């Protein structure tokens, strides 16, 4: 590209709220056939709000089919008995306040947007909070923290399974919330009673036992122009994909709202695996633009043929990207591509 043409491109685009990092980016932007969006903070606003607090007993009622919509073959007798047994085993009566204060206190150690939504929701509802004495992030899965009630887990099914907690009792509740496009998280609290002795582990350490307290959920809203942008890209023949650490059902529900093919929704992608997903997408010779905002997205932005950062995104995302959208508007992806095309055609 001649310096003049490049300057024209950059000036035009800066006025349009699109910043290019280097001159060669205009050349690189050619031959793109796939546009991959991160979900949270990119296609959605990323300002999650706490929407649901479902203590375990309430979740069990839903699971027992007490609304009669899905009668069990035995008329629900078995489910009722199982629910009663579980109730008998439980040590604490769990209400909204206990569930939320334990979850939010634990999350007050985290910077994650999900954590902030839970903490803010608890504060709005006037629930008492404390700072955890110990705190650990489990990336892509949730958190582990110690509050005065004991050790707490907040996160997805995998986090529970990895710690010997069976998520089955709240599965129906989780699925209902996920179908609504919400991020549902399980909350478990260390049991006062010692866990079952594990003879296999000869280290004398008893595994910690947890009881499920319930489920909390947050919702996010899709950005105004996201749906039109997806439709316009598809109309122009681009493959449009979405990557998310969220679970499959939530990812598909949001994908549905945006008109993204369920097959193009890649869910439960761990932070460290986002770049590998881009590699896999580009393995057949496709050239992808990756649009993202988070620390997690930075390696994927570098791996993609062209990386695009949302302007309000994290510094490392912006540093890793070739293009930054100053107005946080997904529609500006179209503008960025159009400006690149126009500049290139002027040069030729
Ligand atoms: P995303 O890419 O959507 O921002 P992450 O990779 O950070 O997602 O997290 C993936 C999943 O792990 C979340 O959908 C949530 O279920 C769980 N998770 C992550 N961080 C937390 C947290 N602080 N509290 C509860 N759950 C969390
Ligand atoms: Mg994001």
UniProtKB/TrEMBL annotation:
It is found in: Endomembrane system. Its main location: membrane. One of its GO terms (cellular component) is membrane. One of its GO terms (biological process) is copper ion homeostasis. GO terms for molecular function: ATP binding; ATP hydrolysis activity; copper ion binding; P-type divalent copper transporter activity. Residues 59-94 are annotated as: Disordered. Keywords: ATP-binding, Copper, Copper transport, Ion transport, Magnesium, Membrane, Metal-binding, Nucleotide-binding, Repeat, Translocase, Transmembrane, Transmembrane helix, Transport. The keyword Ligase does not apply. It comes from the Archaea. Residues 79-94 have a biased composition (Basic and acidic residues). The keyword Amino-acid biosynthesis does not apply. Belongs to the cation transport ATPase (P-type) (TC 3.A.3) family. Type IB subfamily. This is ATPase P. It comes from Natronobacterium lacisalsi AJ5. The lineage of its organism: Archaea, Methanobacteriati, Methanobacteriota, Stenosarchaea group, Halobacteria.
């Amino acid at each position: 590209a001649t310096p003049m043409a490049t300057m024209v491109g950059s000036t035009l685009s800066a006025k349009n709220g699109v910043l290019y990092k280097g001159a060669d980016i205009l050349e690189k932007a050619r031959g793109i056939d796939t546009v991959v969006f991160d979900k949270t903070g990119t296609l959605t606003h990323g300002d999650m709000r706490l929407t649901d607090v479902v203590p375990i007993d309430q979740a069990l009622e839903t699971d027992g089919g007490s609304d009669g919509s899905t009668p069990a073959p035995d008329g629900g007798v078995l489910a009722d008995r199982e629910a009663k047994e579980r109730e008998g085993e439980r040590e604490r009566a769990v209400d909204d306040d206990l569930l939320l204060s334990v979850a939010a206190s634990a999350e007050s150690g985290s910077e994650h947007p999900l954590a902030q939504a839970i903490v803010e929701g608890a504060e709005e509802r006037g629930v008492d909070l404390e700072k955890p004495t110990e705190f650990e992030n489990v990336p892509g899965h949730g958190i582990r923290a110690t509050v005065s009630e004991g050790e707490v887990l907040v996160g997805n099914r995998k986090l529970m399974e990895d710690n010997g907690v069976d998520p089955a009792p709240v599965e129906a509740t989780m699925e209902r919330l996920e179908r609504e496009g919400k991020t549902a998280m399980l909350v478990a609290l260390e049991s006062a009673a010692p866990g079952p002795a594990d003879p296999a582990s000869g280290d004398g350490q008893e595994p910690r036992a947890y009881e499920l307290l319930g489920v909390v959920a947050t919702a996010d809203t899709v950005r105004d122009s996201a749906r039109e942008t997806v439709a316009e890209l598809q109309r122009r023949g681009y493959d449009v994909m979405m990557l998310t650490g969220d679970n499959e059902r939530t990812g598909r529900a949001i994908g549905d709202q945006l008109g993204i093919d369920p097959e193009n929704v890649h869910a439960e992608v761990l932070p460290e695996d986002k770049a590998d997903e881009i590699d896999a997408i580009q393995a057949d010779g496709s050239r992808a633009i990756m649009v993202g905002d988070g620390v997690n997205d930075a390696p994927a932005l570098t791996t993609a043929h062209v990386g695009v950062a949302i302007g309000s995104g994290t510094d490392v995302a912006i540093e890793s990207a070739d293009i930054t959208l100053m107005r946080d508007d997904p529609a500006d992806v179209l503008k960025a591509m159009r400006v690149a095309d126009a500049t290139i055609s002027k040069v030729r």
